[in-house]
Amino acid sequence: MTPPLFVVASLGTGDTVELTGAEAHHAGTVKRLAVGEPAWLADGRGGLAEARVAEVARDRVRFTVLLRRELVRPQPRFTVVQALPKGERAELAVELLTELGADEIVPWAAGRSVAVWRGEKAARGVQKWRRTALEAAKQSRRGWLPEVAELAGSAAIADRVAAADCALVLDSEGQPLASITPPATGEVLVVVGPEGGLAPDELAAFAERGARTVRLGPEVMRTSTAGAAALAALSVAAGRWA
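User: That's the sequence. What structure does it adopt?
Assistant: Structure tokens below.
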């Protein structure tokens, strides 16, 4: 079994690293790690350490560092604009996008989104997505944690499309995604619409800012899984999985 991964604020430079707070509770109480057991520690910014448990206390877990390494940030950078799914499918989308390598996830209040976030609900929703991304990153042993942006409207997404090095909008009428060669560096932005599809004005606005519409295949996928499928295909095409 692969050792569990825990996130620390800093890996430091000494022979030991100490976990406190929620991560210490997870390691000592939830995972029930014992002295001598292996684990991975990550700072979320590419720093990774192989370690062993040296001490388990009520409010902390101390590790002995065996090996440190710095992971190069994968290229190109993958940003996924995810229209708000309804119910538990939102967490499923964030989990899958994190496991499949998204570097940034942008929650999008699309015109046809069934789910609506306003006021405090938007703040709670973003925090929930961030917690979900953190847990998924730990489960998939990621050295780089994905960013989860604030909720964005369609005008802000159009600006993101214009700024990207390669912007792709998933649409059943687009060209095959397999025909796209993503750039080796820079930002590849993927826009995933809601279950009801993108509104014509949204498609037009994104196209005006340089986006290309692409389809995954003959089947129509749910919004909660389409982004992950696109990332998998793009990871192969860009060589991130080589």
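The longest strand covers residues 60-70.
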